[in-house]
Amino acid sequence: MVLEIRLSNFFSIKDEIILDFRAANIKSANARALVDNVFQQGKTDVLKTMVMYGANASGKSNVIRAIRFCNTMVFRSHMHNENTIFNFKPFKFDGYTHKPSKYFIRFVSNGIEYEYAFALTTTQIIEESLHFYPKGRIKEIFTRNENLGKEKSEIYSFGDVIKRPMDVAENTSNKTLYISRASQMDREIPKEIFNYFHNTFILQYLGFGISTIEKLSQENKSVLIDALKIADSDIVDVKIRSLKEPGKNFNANLDTLTVTVEEVVQERLQITTYHKRDPQKPFDFLTEESQGTIKLFFIMLTIMDVVKNNKILLIDEIEESLHPKIIEYIFNFFRASESAQLLCTTHNTKFLDLKRMRKDQIYFVNKKDDASTDVYSLYDFSDFRDTMDLEKAYLQGRFDAVPIINDSLETIKEIFNE
Length: 418
What we know:
Layout (H helix, E strand, L loop, with lengths): L1 E7 L8 E4 L8 H5 L4 E4 L2 E4 L1 E6 L5 H17 L24 E9 L2 E9 L4 E8 L6 E7 L6 H4 E3 L6 H6 L7 H7 L3 H13 E2 L7 H10 L1 H11 L3 E8 L16 H10 E7 L2 E7 H4 L2 H18 L3 E4 L8 H13 L4 E5 L16 E6 L5 E5 L12 H6 L13 H9 L1
Parallel strand pairs: 5-16, 5-17, 11-15, 15-16
Antiparallel strand pairs: 1-2, 1-6, 3-4, 6-7, 7-8, 8-9, 9-10, 12-13, 13-14, 17-18
Pfam family, one: AAA_21
Organism: Cecembia lonarensis (strain CCUG 58316 / KCTC 22772 / LW9)
Protein name: Putative ATPase
């Protein structure tokens, strides 16, 4: 589970922003009623979902992009070579292109709390550290600072957790995160951290291997049918069958769901739907159903995996191509989970309702006068009472995270008459 994320100097993010999943001490009647929006980790209440609102170009997507980049660094940086340029841009103004970008995450894996952080430029790792709380008190696993000297013994310090830590350090270049190399070299805790970022923190709706699709489909058949009914109330049954192995890899791009993807799936699986009009007449799922229905099928497979296994899911613009009822359905899955978490951006103001979401679950993203992205929670507005109309206040610009547009008819006519 995620407890806290901090980012600075990534894309439009200039100064440090904080996303805190540790629930605030809110005593309002609305918050007390939303017991399913949080779960307990030790003595701490943790949020299951967090939504970010903001105008277009405010930087919402850059927050998601930055987290995706940083997490991907953990499980890919051991493949970097000396010519690698990291795939991100620092803030372009005020001299920040020459300053390091920083990432910090506080999380829990197998019941143990960790703090992991690194700083980097587009060409090299500058700092890196990992600490944990094995008995409730912080303990160093390793600390790295490339500015302290040229020798590995000057750059690194270690606790007593990793076996032969300097062997890993000697094989870690300034293009590679130590945690990534240590996992590759079979060190126990680094492998656990690697698996957390690779298998538990899911960065988007993903494609699955054929065996996983079939397994998840069969295990969650009734839920899948219910979800598809929301998109198309005429569907009453779905059947999935593996075909002979054609020798191709399944690699679904669920952002675009291209024809190529459909062809690959079609070669590997036979997915058949049946409709209310004639429950005996089969329809080929990938050629005879709508693109929205097809996309929803794979989305729900991801949701099932995340919720059942208490993972974390990161989604930009969750409402894209999905009906508002589907979005509500997805949020309800997380509410019903034990400790699954969702971080997403959205423009759907339906969830700006304090009978649905706690104040600390709602974040706003705003572009400041210096072109940087600012991120803050509704909880920061202590003067906003539960009795106020949150959706109306947001749309009126109460929290600054909406576009300011002069859209009067007269103004629009002037544009065309210029």
